[in-house]
Design goal:
Order of helices and strands of chain B: EEEHEEHEHHHEHEHEEHHHHEE
CATH architecture of chain B: 3-Layer(aba) Sandwich
Helix content of chain B: 25-40%
CATH topology of chain A: MetI-like fold
Oligomer: heterodimer
Helix content of chain A: over 70%
Number of domains of chain B: 1
Distance between the termini of chain A: 32 Å
CATH architecture of chain A: Orthogonal Bundle
CATH superfamily of chain B: P-loop containing nucleotide triphosphate hydrolases
Largest sheet of chain B: 8 strands, mixed
Structural class of chain A: mainly alpha
Shape of chain B: globular
Strand order of the largest sheet of chain B: 6-7-8-3-9-10-12-11
Number of helices of chain A: 15
Largest sheet of chain A: none
CATH class of chain A: Mainly Alpha
Radius of gyration of chain B: 21 Å
Distance between the termini of chain B: 25 Å
CATH topology of chain B: Rossmann fold
Number of helices of chain B: 11
Radius of gyration of chain A: 24 Å
CATH superfamily of chain A: MetI-like
């Protein structure tokens, strides 16, 4: 048996010394960039998409809905950077405006579906019993349909258009979030700090919202980032099928559909660029969401 | 210790039972049995007294504490706190009860919400119960509580994961004190700490008891800590109390064969004496609380068991003044 002496290095780094006062937002951002290069790459894509969507009027060189029959299906050139489609509309301008549609639909439905699923999933785990049983069976029914089928059904009932597309994508996301969140919330419910909160006489809503929800945020954020990607894909799919955003509103799925069916060989740029936009956006959001989860966990943060 | 007999105990537990049902099947569930975690427990705690509740893992001591706190709804029995039955309380009475009765948990790591700063953890109950609506004075109170518990008030701005186990346990104690309770259930409050920290926290609990006139139910398996801190001790085995007496009386003159076996397992901090010590572990394993033995639950392992032990369940008898034993064979 050896006697271990206190390690001087370990004692020097006592909690008193490592206690950092307040980290500024700037320092936190810098730390994020340094520790999460892939996440930063994702963040850059997301920021670019937001800028494109937000400032579309100033960035786009042409009106996205204006037909120019003198310049139909032109290959990329200095005038039309990414070429024109079969109606002579500038593809770059339509991509930029399409980013707005994609982000509005993607974020609204992901956040809406995610938050509803989060609160319902945690409440279901917390209350348990009959409430949990019935809630889970309802989720089972909703989960039985693939996302796109359920969204199609909702669109069939409510009709097309941006707002209805958001609702249509929100509904299938709720059970996907509720199920995963409930699983982590079941574990959190058994942790003594939840008992402590009950013993302190806190209300159910306070225990659910303040003590349980913050502790299932890590899986939730991962889900949410995946949801934004899925929602953008679903919007593109619905639009591609003609059940989402309607012409002439610029949307990536619509552009893909217009280009891929007839002109895939003769004018590939019509379909390739919106496809690339969808892919890059989904990839960027996933990378950023992953890195964000690591960054907001206080246990992982100061390492 | 010599309180007048007329004074009503702060806590009276009468015939407490907690059976957890075991069910089978997914859609058509049917009950196939019960885990009898607590099966008929009676005890009193007087104001200002500390009662130790000891026994090995799974004997139901933690469940007893949870029932008293109404974190579980017991199957049967009464828990009278200051004369009021905890189980029949309405919502409003229950909120009032929470201010008077608190808990300190075993694990200092999982008993604090990792997303909240220490200051918020301690001030939240003060805020929710409307004890101190003013934010600045609430902050002062948190600082006071931290220093009462032997922590630097600066810790209020830290997260629990930035602290050591002993420091976290002090935060847990400060949170329990935030509402100025009269009664605290210490559920293995020092078991997860290493020995030097244990002594500090035990001393802190003693100081707080004197300073605020607290009453404790001290649940533990470490017998030496219990002897040091508690005036009276109750020994539990398989959901029942087998012996209850004043601390010194119980440790010096254990009467129940299970208590004797339990005490003989305590090591002596002198290697020479320890080497020659007689250790008689009870034979066999603890039976399952789903199917506890008939009669006296200890009879399959008891060196003194006779045929009668299989039939009749022994009741607690006062064999010596204030020394209660649930055994029909000892006298």
């Amino acid at each position: 048996m050896t006697v271990t002496l206190p390690n001087p290095a370990a004692t020097a780094a006592s909690p008193q010394d490592t206690l950092v006062p307040k980290r500024t937002a700037w320092a936190a951002a810098l730390a994020f960039v340094r520790r999460q290069p892939l996440g930063t790459f994702g963040l850059v894509i997301v920021v670019v998409m937001f800028l494109a969507g937000g400032l579309a009027e100033w960035i786009a060189p042409f009106d996205p809905e204006e037909n120019d029959f003198a310049a139909m299906m032109e290959a990329p050139s200095l005038v039309h950077w990414l070429g024109t489609d079969q109606f002579g509309r500038d593809i770059f301008s339509r991509l930029v405006f399409g980013a707005r549609t994609a982000l509005i639909v993607g974020f609204s439905s992901a956040v809406l579906g995610g938050v509803i699923g989060l609160v319902m999933g945690v409440a279901s785990a917390y209350f348990g019993g009959w409430f949990d049983l019935i809630f889970q069976r309802v989720l089972d029914v909703l989960m039985a349909f693939p996302l796109i089928i359920l969204a199609l059904a909702v669109v069939a009932v409510f009709g097309t258009g941006v707002f209805n597309v958001i609702i249509a994508i929100t509904i299938p996301l709720v059970p996907r979030c509720g199920r995963v969140v409930r699983a982590s919330a079941l574990a959190v419910r058994e942790v003594p700090y939840v008992d402590a909160a009950r013993a302190l006489g806190f209300s159910h809503s306070r225990i659910v919202l303040r003590h349980m929800v913050p502790n299932v945020l890590a899986p939730f954020l991962i889900l949410l980032s995946a949801f934004v990607g899925q929602a953008i894909l679903a919007e593109a799919s619905l639009s591609y099928l003609g059940l989402g955003v309607q012409e002439p509103v610029p949307a990536w799925g619509l552009m893909l559909q217009g280009g891929a069916e007839e002109y895939a060989t003769t004018a590939p740029w019509i379909a390739v660029f919106p496809g690339l936009a969808i892919m890059l956006t989904v990839l960027g959001i996933s990378l950023f969401g992953d890195a964000l989860r690591d960054a907001i966990d206080p246990k992982l943060r100061d390492r | 210790m010599n309180a007048p007999i007329a004074e009503r105990p702060l806590l009276e537990v009468r015939g407490l039972a907690m059976h957890f049902p075991i069910s089978e099947g997914i859609v058509l569930t049917r009950k196939i049995g019960d885990v009898k975690a607590v099966d008929g427990v009676d005890f009193d705690i007087k104001r200002g007294e500390t009662l130790g509740l000891v026994g090995e893992s799974g004997c139901g001591k933690t469940t007893t504490g949870r029932c008293i706190l109404r974190l579980e709804k017991p199957t049967a029995g009464e828990i009278l706190f200051d004369g009021q039955d905890v189980n029949r309380m309405e919502r409003r009475e229950l909120v009032a009860l929470r201010r008077r009765m608190q808990v300190i948990f075993q694990d200092p790591y999982s008993s604090l919400n990792p997303r909240m700063k220490v200051g918020d953890i301690i001030s939240e109950p003060i805020k929710v119960h409307g004890v101190e609506p003013d934010a600045r004075r609430r902050r002062d109170k948190v600082r006071d509580l931290l220093s009462v518990c032997g922590l630097d008030p600066k810790f209020a701005d830290r997260y629990p994961h930035e602290m050591s186990g002993g420091q976290r346990q002090r935060v847990g104690i400060a949170r329990a004190l935030a509402l100025d309770p009269e009664f605290i259930v210490c559920d293995e409050a020092v078991s997860a700490l290493d020995v030097s920290i244990q002594a500090q926290v035990v001393n802190l609990l003693e100081d707080l008891r004197e300073r605020f006139g607290l009453t404790y139910l001290f649940i533990a398996h470490d017998l030496s800590v219990v002897r040091h801190l508690c005036q009276r001790v109750a020994v539990m085995y398989l959901g029942r109390i087998v012996e209850m007496a004043a601390s010194d009386e119980l440790f010096d003159n254990p009467l129940h064969p299970y208590t004797q076996a339990l005490l003989s397992a305590v090591p002596i901090p002198d290697p020479r004496v320890e080497a020659g010590r007689e250790f008689r572990p009870p034979r066999g394993e603890v039976p399952s609380p789903i199917n506890p033995p008939s009669g006296c639950v200890f009879h399959p392992r008891c060196p003194m068991a006779v045929d009668g032990c299989r039939q009749a369940r022994p009741v607690l008898r006062e064999l010596r003044p204030r020394h209660w034993v649930a055994c029909s064979e000892v006298n």
